[in-house]
Design brief:
single chain; alpha/beta; Serine Threonine Protein Phosphatase 5, Tetratricopeptide repeat; Rossmann fold; seven-stranded parallel beta sheet; globular
């Protein structure tokens, strides 16, 4: 995904197969009841001597319930019992791998997926699981290869193709044209046939009336992309816009409660099929329907393919375009999607002050003084997921550290809980002459501790080719400037877009070599860094996108322009 803050609950980003709705409950109580029934069955005195396949199935189903309750250790133990009863139970090995993946026990996950392949060599879901492990460890070429093979095994599976598209955002060999071609290929295969059955819309084409805006997301919770769209959603002018939310959010929290309270209507939609959700949206007479996920896990792009609303928009979640003819607009900005590249997209680009908003519902730690003044050396940092730390990025960062022999580098993210990820990154630096003593690798933490860690960072380094979205804004909010390279793809321009929106173009390099030189030069002026640090937070808060109310007005202006264009088209065809 484009955002890499620690979330309330890890998830299978780019998953190849969604949990079946029969195993996903919208209520904690229902899951507990399913668990009670499973325990009763397993605890039956005669059950231990019953058919091994039935026993394995019971433990397997129990593991699924425990997984959905977030009780991962117990789920793994239940899957272990399932495969003990039936050593060739491939689905249990895959589910076990998924839970271990969520728990950041990637070696164990990899072993489970490989065991499944030993039993069934053509199991696409196991290849998908292995691809996630490779991706999270930054081994993107291997991840893409696994997904390509899985898609060859199940060419009619849209979820595998979705995962491949998502993963290629991290691929340093992929061009912008290739990425958009892949999206159009997905749309042609899985979405184009819906265009033949789209019914006419009866929405009142009054250009000035109150509009019904529908938001579709699996992330109405304390999750990174929610901090991008939350300010706009919660600050809409209710006299002009009615807000309807369609939530596929599984692990609801206090942020969910905020969104629910801010909406005029709230639908819990996780149990609805794509057809049922599309029908609900059409019956709600939505004027503008907004996708908040893009190609992230849990997306409902095939609902949008059914065109349940006259105007459809993709924004904030993963703003790289969808390839869907049914998606009318992409909310972006001129840096994220330059005018020269817009013909590659199927969507029309609507420009905002920044493709991201910045919303903080709770107070965060103060930035504090420039740490270099007390430490006597510069500390660089990057709080990005390991998948973004490519070999080219490691080479660039190693060059910076060689040019500044006293400088240190702090890397932070939940993926560093995995020993394999730590080894790949530290080993990559070691081969380039940078010892482990100059690196600090930090795992995930709660929100306050995550932001407090920026107090030890002087300069943030943006990775490539997939840069930081919300991580860039987080660093700036904590007074830490971000050195970025404005690359050739949408994913490589995330940081450059936000830096440009704040007037910080001096921190954007035009090439990889210039990126290294810029980082070294920036580190040489501690006085300038200290002055900048003191004012960055207020600069962000006062910007067109850091102020939630002002950003919401800009979003509303974009919506109204879309609506006026639709009304004018209706009039011209009347």
């Amino acid at each position: 995904m484009l955002f890499d803050r620690p979330d309330a609950l890890p998830e299978l980003s780019g998953i190849c197969a969604k949990p079946s709705v029969s195993n996903v409950s919208n209520t904690h109580q229902r899951l507990l009841e399913e668990l009670r029934r499973a325990d009763e069955k397993i605890g039956t005195p005669n059950f231990a001597s019953s058919n091994p396949a039935e026993r394995a199935s019971a433990f397997y189903k129990r593991g699924i319930v425990l997984r959905n309750l977030g009780r991962f250790e117990e789920a793994v133990a239940s899957y272990d019992m399932a495969v003990a009863s039936d050593p060739k139970f491939v689905d249990a090995y895959v589910q076990r791998g998924d839970v271990l993946y969520i728990a950041k026990r990637l070696d164990g996950a990899l072993a489970s997926y490989n065991r499944a392949l030993e039993i069934k060599p053509d199991l696409a879901q196991a290849f998908c699981g292995i691809s996630r492990v490779y991706r999270d460890r930054g081994q993107i070429r291997q991840a893409v290869s696994c997904l390509t093979h899985a898609l060859g095994l199940q060419p009619a599976n849209p979820d595998i193709h979705l995962a491949l598209i998502f993963t290629r955002n991290f691929d340093p060999t992929a061009s912008s044209a290739e990425l958009q071609t892949e999206r159009r290929a997905f749309a042609q295969k899985f979405a184009s046939h819906f265009r033949q059955v789209v019914a006419p819309f009866s929405n009142d084409p009054d250009p000035n009336r109150r509009l019904r805006i529908g938001y579709v997301s699996p992330h109405f919770r304390a999750q990174a992309s929610a901090y991008a769209f939350g300010g706009a959603l919660l600050n809409h002018d209710k006299s002009c816009f009615e807000i309807i939310c369609y939530s596929d959010t599984l692990d609801e929290d206090s942020a969910t409660a905020r969104f629910r309270a801010g909406a005029d209507c709230w639908h819990q939609t996780i149990d609805l099929s794509d057809d049922a959700l599309a029908n609900l949206i059409r019956n709600d007479r939505i004027d503008i329907l907004v996708d908040l996920a893009g190609y992230q896990s849990g997306n409902r792009l095939l609902v949008f393919a059914r065109k349940p609303a006259p105007i459809q928009v993709t924004a904030w979640g993963e703003p790289t375009g969808t390839g869907l003819q049914a998606m009318d607009y992409l909310l972006a900005d001129p840096v994220l999607v330059p005018h020269s590249e817009r013909t590659q997209l199927t969507e029309r680009v609507a420009d905002l002050p920044n493709f991201l908003g910045y919303w903080n519902p709770e107070p965060l730690p103060e930035p504090g003084p420039l740490p270099a003044l007390a430490k006597g050396h510069v500390t660089f940092g990057s709080f990005s997921r390991v998948a973004k730390i490519t070999n080219a990025t490691i080479r660039a960062w190693a060059s910076i550290l060689r040019a500044l022999p006293t400088a240190m580098l702090v890397l932070k993210g939940p993926d560093f809980a995995d020993a394999g990820s730590r080894q790949r990154v530290s080993g990559g630096f070691a081969t380039l002459g940078i010892p482990a003593t100059r690196l600090t690798l930090l795992g995930g933490s709660d929100r306050d501790a995550h932001f407090a860690a920026y107090r030890d960072i002087d300069i943030a380094l943006d990775p490539f080719p997939h840069g930081g979205g919300m991580t860039t804004l987080d660093a700036l909010y904590m007074g830490v400037p971000v050195v970025a390279w404005q690359g050739p793809t949408i994913s490589s321009r995330l940081a450059a877009a936000s830096l440009t929106a704040l007037g910080l173009t001096d921190f954007i390099a035009p090439s990889q070599d210039a990126y290294v030189d810029l980082a070294v030069a920036t580190a040489a002026n501690s006085d300038a860094l200290a002055r900048l640090r003191a004012g960055l937070r207020s600069r962000l808060e006062g910007s067109e996108f850091g102020n939630a109310a002002r950003y919401s007005r800009a979003v509303e202006a974009a919506y109204r322009a879309m609506w006026l264009r639709w009304c004018a088209d209706r009039s011209s065809h009347a």
